[in-house]
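Illustration 12: Secreted protein.
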Amino acid sequence: MAATVLLCACLIPAAHAKKCTEKQADAFEAMVDHLDSWEKVDQLRKQYGHCDDGGPAELLSEAIALQLADRWESLPELAKLIERDRALKPFVLGHVDSTLNDREVNRIQVQATSSCPAGLKRLCAELKKRAADAFK
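Figure caption equivalent — predicted structure in token form:
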């Protein structure tokens, strides 16, 4: 009896996993094209995080890398959002990956090393590590 209850409890999350429809995937991609702030990245994660796979995920990785590389001064905004919702951090860090071009990864790594805003050393260290891992 206990095994049956345990088996059913394990299957419930899988049964309720949200599937990404074609319409949602299109909306996800459309939002990626307009990501110019961490607030919008967080909004996309909350609305369409279940669509974060395959080609659209690569587009999102590129958008996040550009946000980090080109708008490094916005890192404190990201940190504030992460304080409010810890799920944002692994979402962002997970997109600093091997799909990115070396130029962007290098810029992220350099900025995390030499231009870390006060109080964000841990986040910078994690970004630096993810960038180093992306080169592997």
